[in-house]
Amino acid sequence: MIEEKIKSLEITLPNPPTPAGSYIPAVKTGNLLFISGQIPMENGKVLFTGKVSDDNLETAQKSARMCAINLLAQMKRELGNLDRVARIVRLSGFVNSDPEFYQHPKVINAASDLFFEIFGDKGKHSRIAMGVACLPLNSMTEIDAIIEFSE
After folding, report:
1. Across residues 29-56, what is the average pLDDT?
2. Pairing relation of β-strands 26-29 and 41-42?
3. How far is 64 from 69, CA to CA, in rounded Å?
4. Residue 20 — pLDDT band, cuts 50, 70, 90?
5. What is d(CA 14, CA 31) in angstroms, rounded to the nearest whole number?
6. Measured between alpha carbons, how far is 143 from 37 in angstroms, rounded to an integer?
7. Most buried of the four, 21, 41, 60, 137, by CB within 10 Å?
């Protein structure tokens, strides 16, 4: 059902990105899945790079949406079936922003809104959205997630 919803939104899940450092992409403990930070990467290439400012807010939102799509790809790899997602518990969103940029929530909303659209009430989550001085591979955004899943 969830994967049909994703297809109806014309989203194709990519192969989940591999870690760029000394960590694993996800950890399951109990009925929680902790997914490491995802950047807007596809086929080994970062799609959105550079500092976020008021001038490129829409591009930054596309970057955050791509991070969410990579989070979905990691969920699918770990759970096998996205219908096992019981709840999106929390997102932590990081924005590679100019010092004068203050619209971090508007950037990360693109990821939050996608999860609301796909999962409905199960997609409602707690969240943090913050600006940072830089991100790995000069990515515009990075988002990690905590997911509750069912057996």
Report:
1. 97
2. unpaired
3. 9
4. confident
5. 25
6. 5
7. 60
User: What is the per-residue pLDDT across 53-71, written as a single tens digit (0 to 9) for each?
Assistant: 999 999 999 999 999 999 9
Can you give the residue ranges of every domain in the chain?
Answer: 2-149
Report the 10 Å Cβ neighbour count for 41: 21
What residues contact residue 144 under an 8 Å CB cut-off, 6+ apart? 34, 35, 36, 37, 38, 71, 91, 92
H or E segment at 108?
helix 104-119
- Predicted pLDDT at 81: 95
Tell me which residue of 83, 74, 78 sits closest to 15, measured CA to CA.
74
Nearest C-alpha neighbor of 121 from the set 86, 74, 96, 92: 86
